[in-house]
Each structure stands twice: as C-alpha cells, then as structure tokens.
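Lab manual, section 2.4: Encoding a predicted structure.

Procedure: take the sequence of the chain (71 residues), apply the prediction step described in section 2.3, and record the output as structure tokens. A sample record is shown.
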Amino acid sequence: ASDVYKRQLLNSFPEWIPQLIIDAFSALGFLSHFDSISKGVLDVRDILYFILFIMSWLLSSAIVIEMKKAN
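Recorded output:
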C-alpha cells in the first residue's frame, strides 16, 4: 500500500489496535491494489483481487435478485 494510504488508515484506527490488523486492512483495501495499477504495474495479485471483487458483487446481486423473485 502507498504511504499516504497507510497514514490515513493509521489515523482512522485507535492507537490500541495492533499494527498487524492495520496492515491486514491495508492489504485488503481497494486503494492499495488500485495504486499499483494506476502506476502501470500489472500484478497478478491485483488483477485477481479485482476479479474476485467483481465476481463477489455479481454473485451477491444475483442472490438478492433470486430472493426477490421468490417472494
């Protein structure tokens, strides 16, 4: 993740939260993956992140639509 993003993330969490948890949130965040792609660096992990992100929202949308059709 970029340094700016990490600083913003650090400021949003209380001081008592361990650094490991903050780093995990940073790694899962949208901006950390988008930052490298915006610089022109295509990493397989970033591409997989966005594919899984899109697929999970498509799946959840399909589930909601099916639930609404069932009623």
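Check your result against the sample. The mean pLDDT is 82.
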